């Protein structure tokens, strides 16, 4: 299942993109019986928010969002018109801001930035099955 959305650079664009993503996931669940864990819903909204925020901040003009889903992963692709290819900075807890791509890379099983003749495409894949439980790092009391 796939869908594409043209987003203007206006106020409310980020919220609109998140609503599109949630509606897309709901359609996948109800029409195609795809199992979408709550974690994947939350991460999809986070990735969409961060990628749209970056596009609005650094690129003039509209943003195109393409969503795709299989039984194993959610794919979020964002296209904007900026020719500059962003770089995810290394982790730095002292840095204020500019953590968007760092966050997207951390929560994605696949992340790629592809230059385009009139801008760039950023694609992130989010795993749908919940990862196996990891042992708690807390000490038992």
From TrEMBL:
* The UniProt record lists the keyword Transferase: yes
Under Gene Ontology molecular function, one entry of this record is: protein serine/threonine kinase activity
Instruction: Specify the superkingdom.
Output: Bacteria
For the Histidine kinase/HSP90-like ATPase domain, which residue ranges apply? 21-123
- Output the InterPro entries linked to this UniProt entry: Anti-sigma-factor_SerPK, HATPase_C_sf, HATPase_dom
Q: Which UniProt keywords apply?
A: ATP-binding, Kinase, Nucleotide-binding, Serine/threonine-protein kinase, Transferase
Tell me yes or no: is Cell membrane among this UniProt entry's keywords.
Answer: no
* Full protein name: ATP-binding protein
Species of origin: Streptomyces apricus
């Amino acid at each position: 299942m796939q869908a594409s959305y043209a987003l203007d650079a206006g106020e409310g664009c980020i919220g609109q993109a998140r609503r599109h993503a949630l509606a897309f996931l709901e359609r996948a669940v109800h029409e195609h019986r795809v199992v979408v864990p709550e974690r994947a819903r939350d991460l999809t909204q986070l990735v969409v928010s961060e990628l749209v925020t970056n596009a609005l901040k650094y690129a003039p003009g509209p943003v195109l969002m393409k969503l795709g889903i299989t039984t194993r992963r959610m794919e979020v692709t964002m296209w904007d018109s900026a020719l500059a290819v962003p770089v995810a900075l290394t982790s730095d807890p002292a840095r204020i801001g500019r953590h968007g791509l760092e966050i997207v890379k951390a929560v994605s099983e696949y992340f790629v930035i592809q230059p385009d003749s009139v801008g760039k495409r950023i694609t992130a894949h989010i795993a749908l099955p919940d990862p196996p439980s990891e042992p708690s790092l807390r000490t038992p009391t």
